[in-house]
Amino acid sequence: MSETQSQMQPRRPMRADARRNYDALVAAARDAFTEEGAAASLENVAERAGVGIGTLYRHFPKRQALLEAVYAGEVEAMARSAEELAELPPWDALSEWFHRYVGFAATKRALTEALLEAAPESDVLLMCRTALMTAGTGLIERAQKAGVVRPDATFVDVGRMVSGIAVVSTGDPEQTERMLQIVLDGLRPRPG
Question: How many CA atoms lie within 13 A of 179 on its CB side?
């Protein structure tokens, strides 16, 4: 469990059934927020998880806590995927991660906006930003050392461009892919 996720969890260990309920609620909320947006009904989340609304409120007394748990879990998975790509050549790992990042950013847009609106200075948001920046920076630096990415590129630059691509609702996956490819091509070292 990451530091980000551990801060979302209650301090004392959970019984096995409580852990199952917690995990089911987070998974159900992730699905509901993806399909319906961050304003999805908490009753719907509890129903999807197969628990009562009281169980949801025992684990997540406020909507904000549930939003943060879902967001932190998704960010952790995105950051962890950078490590999982370590076996690939540096360029392939970087390219694959940014392809995943576009999908991540697109599906988490409403969730991110809800979190920023409710608590823009949230420690969870700061930890999530740090986790993504660390993962992306590691991939870029590895590719720079291999000579396949220009030396002046930073994750902040590339991350903002890729996030921008993710939020443009073109409805055309081919256009999204083309825009991402243009950004990735711009990362290649310049001749001479």
Answer: 17
